Fold this sequence. Notes:
Elements: H1 2-17, E1 20-24, E2 35-39, H2 46-54, E3 60-64, H3 71-79, E4 83-85, H4 98-110, E5 115-117, H5 135-146, E6 154-162, E7 171-176, E8 180-181, H6 183-191, H7 193-209, H8 221-236, H9 247-265, H10 267-286, H11 301-326, H12 328-331, H13 339-366, H14 371-396, H15 401-406, H16 408-443
Parallel strand pairs: 1-7, 2-5, 2-6, 3-4, 3-5
Antiparallel strand pairs: 6-7, 6-8
Amino acid sequence: MLLYILRPIVRLALWIFFRKIDVRGHDRVPSDRSLIFAANHPNVMLDTLILGLTLPPDPRFLGKSTLFKNPFYAWFLRQLGVIPVARTRDRGSRTYSNRDMLRAACGALRDGHSLVIFPEGISHAEIKVRDLKPGAARIALRTEAETDGQTGICIVPIGLTYTDPGLFRSDVSVHFGEAIEILPFLRAYRENRNAAEQDLTTQVHERLTALTRHIDNPNLRTVINDLSAIYTDTVADEIPDSSELSRKLQAQQEIIHAVHHFARTDPELVRTFAERLCAHHRKLRRLRLSPNLPPALSPPAGHLLLALLTSPIVLYGFIHNALPYYLPRLFVRPYRDKPETIGTVKMAAGAVLFPLWYLILVGVACLFMDLQNALIYGLTLPTSGLVTLLFDEHILQKWPLWQSVVLPRKRRYYLNRLSRERATIIHDLDAIKERYRSKKSGDGF
């Protein structure tokens, strides 16, 4: 009953918080099998919510034991089927209690439930898959050994990729990988448990890195981010669409591989381009322009007309939704150094502030009008807020009207200058791309 109530609420919250949730490879998930889903962990709570809606019904999550310190929260998590895991890094944790975790997890698999594990052991916003803990492999192999290989367990890797883990109305992709059969590891497990667990964990890590962005060299993170922001769409246009991996992820992975290649073979080229890209993005930020948009284009007449016609509704929506929209920014200030937490805090704060604010406004409206009109007024609050949100995304962000109307000459000068600079960068990147692909084809790597 609790899951039945929460599922539509969480679905609505995620639909509002994210602009797009792209799920790929879901048909790879075996049916009628005991499954362990192993995912990377770039966001503290949003990962859990997203997986809870995209996975088969009633999955059992493994969560850190510190979440169970509060009695009410512990009761709530247990009702949802969460199994506590004691980590050595958590103060006051009792790792011997993981024997209870192993028994509960193995029992859930034997009963036909699926498990969800974040084997990195920690949430982080790094663009990489960290070294994995052996917990998923240990649970899978122990269960198969206890049932003499009759359970038929598979580990399904899941890659989670956010355009920005702390940004409201960002995009997230969920990529399901090919399932890993456990039976082939069972014989080795009976001979040497630790070695078999490590081999299986290594294979899970390899599958996960193939399903998300993974930067081995942290010194290249900035140049890869800047390059991906300006060049991902260009590379993606040349890649055929796939039901397994999105074109955008494939393009980002190719960019990462290319930068790592040139960092080894031509570091001066990487350094020079890093400086050019950094300077270009600095100018874009100064004008509040997105790097993946053609800045020299002026808004079409249709957009200006649409902006004019919808402006009364947008103004109404902004006035009534501005406070709960901007207030969560105050809550995330203590987490500036933890980008993997910002999205969770924003969503939690918004989930409380918006309904509370709407109730206050409707309550005040009841003092001046009858209940029926007050309820109609209350329905206009979230509706106008969504219209304002779409107006901001499709008109203000795409065509910054204040720069078009208020400062046309200054905008035109800077945009034309940036447009020429962007065209030169992309032209040079096209040449480097052909150089990389010819080298890649010739060396067979």
